[in-house]
Specification:
This protein is an alpha+beta fold. The chain folds into 3 domains: 138 residues, no CATH class; 104 residues; 157 residues, Heat Shock Protein 90, CATH 3.30.565.10. It is built from 7 helices and 12 strands.
Length: 433
């Protein structure tokens, strides 16, 4: 049922021990309280007898004591060698009988004292019965504590067991997100983390096949071109200039293949970046630095880079390399497709999810039916191998952010590339003066 590392077992043992200890302690204090209360009552009873006798009254006061209480009382006058001003109360056992005795000052001049003794056997037997009942109650109580502990531990670990069973039945081809709303509040963060991991695995499986097929296709085509050009060149004798042209075409094709290989290597490098230790940074400050870097590049191409950042600061714990890769890809694509004398806007704003970063261009727009985050997907007639947005999507998944690219809806042509950072691990900086 349990293993040596079982959370439920440790919780069950701790709950049983703590509940049993509490039960024993409560029983002990209850027994002690009852015993002290009865002993104090008997003390006051004998003290009342002693005061009445010392004041030349009857053994009992008719207004407060019943005559029946006089039964079993033995009164003696004793003399002590040393005077004592206070009464002395103690218990003795003789022949299996228990007696309560009080020694009360009668006349301090001749050191005479009243010694009043009353049998306490029945009450003492009642104490023993109470103690036995408490033992029985404790044994029964421990039995119920065990049942309660087993039931409670089973109920508490049920969500974990459900998650464990759900995850154990998953594989790369059959993955379903965890329904966070059905989990207890304490397990919501765990469920969201698992869903984030599941989403990353799904995206990896989704694009893995496309990446392999696309890589083979992208490399096979230029290799076929090189082979065909060489075959055509070798058919007949050519001038040196024609051979030089053929070699230049081959070199150009090889350069294109090198670009593809370099982009594929970037995928491997990105996995390394994802393993970097996240640090706390001001995302707005990073955006300002990127804007400064690309402002000169945009001006050199006859374009304008506009900036608008809200709030003034936004702290987040993340891998800076991944964030830089996404923003850089957005700005490169925006500048690539934006015509001369047009503008690109880099802006940020706060929403209910976190920090929304947007790059807005004035290009030709995109085909909404094409998944541009898939590997080797290109848009327009610009140069590129189609791996930039694929890398950006992978980086976004690693950051736990949302990424999207869509056409502008403000009546102008162009696209809006957005990255929405989650605010759960972030905080807003106070406004800068």
């Amino acid at each position: 049922m349990f293993s040596t590392k079982s959370i439920r077992q440790r919780f069950l043992i701790q709950l049983i021990l703590s509940s049993s200890s509490l039960l024993f302690i409560f029983s002990y204090f209850m027994y002690f309280f009852i015993e002290r209360s009865i002993y104090e009552g008997k003390h006051q009873e004998l003290l009342s007898y002693a005061k009445n006798i010392a004041q030349d009254k009857a053994i009992f006061d008719g207004s407060t004591l019943s005559p029946s209480l006089n039964l079993g009382i033995n009164v003696e006058v004793i003399y002590l060698r040393k005077a004592q001003s206070n009464d002395e109360f103690y218990e003795t056992t003789i022949n299996n009988k228990t007696f309560m005795t009080i020694i009360y000052p009668l006349n301090l001049d001749d050191l005479s004292y009243l010694k009043i003794t009353k049998e306490f056997t029945v009450t003492k037997m009642l104490f023993d019965d109470i103690l036995n009942y408490l033992y029985i109650i404790n044994i029964v109580g421990i039995f119920f504590v065990v049942i309660y502990a087993v039931t409670l531990s089973k109920m508490l670990v049920q969500p974990l067991k459900t998650l464990s069973n759900k995850l154990s039945n998953m594989n790369e081809h059959l993955m379903r997100p965890v329904k966070v709303k059905e989990l207890p509040k304490e397990f919501e963060a765990l469920g969201e983390t698992l869903n984030h991991l599941i989403l990353r695995i799904q995206n990896f499986v989704k694009y893995q096949k496309e990446l392999f097929i696309g890589t083979a296709h992208e490399l096979k085509t230029p290799l076929a071109v090189i082979k065909l050009k060489n075959q055509v060149t070798l058919i007949k004798k050519r001038t040196p200039e024609e051979y030089i042209d053929a070699i230049n075409i081959t070199n150009k094709t090889i350069d294109e293949m090198n670009i593809i290989v370099s982009n594929i290597l970037n995928i491997g490098r990105q996995e390394g970046v994802q393993l970097e230790t996240p640090i706390e940074v001001d995302v707005i400050e990073i955006l300002r630095q990127k804007a400064d870097d690309f402002d000169l590049l945009a001006a050199n191409e006859g374009k304008e880079l506009l900036m608008s950042f809200e709030p003034n600061g936004f702290m987040a714990i993340l891998q800076v390399g991944l964030l830089n890769q996404i923003i850089q890809n957005f700005l490169q694509n925006a500048l690539k497709f934006t015509p001369v004398n047009s503008s690109v806007t880099l802006q940020s704003s706060q929403n209910s999810y976190g920090l929304l970063i947007e790059v807005i261009d004035e290009g030709c727009g995109i085909d909404d039916s094409v998944d541009l985050f898939a590997p080797f997907k290109r848009q327009g007639n610009k140069q590129g191998v189609g791996l930039g947005l694929f890398l950006a999507k992978s980086a976004s998944d690693a950051l736990g952010a949302k990424i999207s690219i869509k056409n502008r809806e403000d009546g102008h042509s162009g696209t809006v590339a957005s990255l929405n950072l989650n605010s759960k691990l972030s905080c807003i900086l106070p406004n800068r003066k």
